[in-house]
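Let us practice reading a record.
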Amino acid sequence: MYHPTDVHIGRKMREKRVALGMSQAALAEKLGITFQQVQKYESGANRIGGSRLWDISQVLREPIGYFYEGLREGQAGGQAEEDTLPLSKQTLELARAINSIPEGSVKEEVMQLVKAFARIS
């Protein structure tokens, strides 16, 4: 069983990578590691060391604290909760697409449409 903190950090890493439109291979190349290692980090199978987390934060242009945001007290030692499971690639791509729409009525209408589809599924 993977440690919930490692799963959380890996999830944040994946979310940011996908939001930037970066592949695992591209991130791996910038870090000087294999894409398989990136996969292991993102799943929480491998723990990310401090120096590697620093490198990741530089490539993804986020402060190190970003990777810990949302980690609840007491979560670190327990079982991973449902909301700590990695989001699907499709979900992350949808979020990235919606975020690229300028703020305003069109973006709000798209959000309402997605919510309407979710209710009828």
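A brief commentary: Residues 78-82 have pLDDT under 50 and may be disordered.
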